[in-house]
Known about the structure:
Elements: H1 4-14, H2 17-26, H3 33-45, E1 48-52, H4 59-69, E2 74-78, H5 85-89, E3 90-95, E4 100-105, E5 112-116, H6 123-135, E6 137-140, E7 143-146, E8 152-157, H7 170-173, E9 176-181, H8 187-198, H9 211-222, H10 228-242, E10 256-258, H11 262-278, H12 286-297, E11 302-303, H13 305-309, H14 314-324
Parallel strand pairs: 1-8, 1-9, 2-5, 5-8
Antiparallel strand pairs: 3-4, 6-7, 10-11
Helix pairs in contact: 3-11, 10-11, 11-12, 12-14
Amino acid sequence: MVDIREINEKIQQESAFIELLNMELGKVIVGQKHMLDRLLIGLLSNGHLLLEGVPGLAKTLAIKSLSSAIHAKFSRLQFTPDLLPADLVGTMIYNQKQEQFTVRKGPLFANFVLADEINRAPAKVQSALLEAMQERQVTIGDQTFPLEEPFLVLATQNPIEQEGTYPLPEAQLDRFMLKVVIGYPTKEDERMIMRQNLAQEFPKINPVLHPDTIVKARAAVRDVYMDEKIEKYILDIVFATRFPKENNLRKLENLISYGGSPRASINLALASKAYAFIKRRGYVIPEDVRAVSHDVMRHRIGLSYEAEAENITTDDVISEVLNIVEVP
């Protein structure tokens, strides 16, 4: 038998740092609560994030602030069409003194890597990220180097400018745990942002956590209790995107070309546990699953030409699925 009260008490103790971290990030990031929560979900679940939003919405500032608050190494990569894989992972350099090749590590060797405008680089550069994202290691020449934990790739893409971009292939999109769409701040939030940027001094982020705390918290996230009914609910949501006709979603049948992969189920379960952990709860409820469904699923569903012609988005499809699938 699982003692939920015991798990709940343990999670409440383990998640005490969340409040401290949010307070520190709140000094610099105004509003954007959704983005910060998703950053923490990725961090606690050991999953990578793809952020989509117009320029100037604090995407770079958020990841930089997070790395400062965790006392971790931050690296920013500006993806351009002329970038080479060696510019990311590093290369072999000939040392004349020693008369041998030595490895020079690239900017990918960091705890937090910001891949800015990832869709501006060609496929061979994007694929250089895949090994690091999936296996948490980098191969240079014939040597393989493990990456330090925590390791988080935060990629951004601009939804407006599509000229001279290379859309990410489905296989690579699937490696991202979450795809977060960021909107504009409210008027009140933007007033605060404006004042903050016009002030004499910009607030400074202080390191309040050690990377070891995050590694320990990741183990605690997996201890969050998930009932069989919640597991069934997650599978029902994912399977409804694959076989809409069999799940009372006949009208979606011609709109979906392919549904969520098994990674969708795994990441939906993990993200739900991390969301419960952020809310300082030791068990997952259906609202946790619903809260993260759009971010986990929106880049894992393929739309047909018919859906695109009718201006139907993956978010519309997910909302329809969540409305029809029975909540436990």
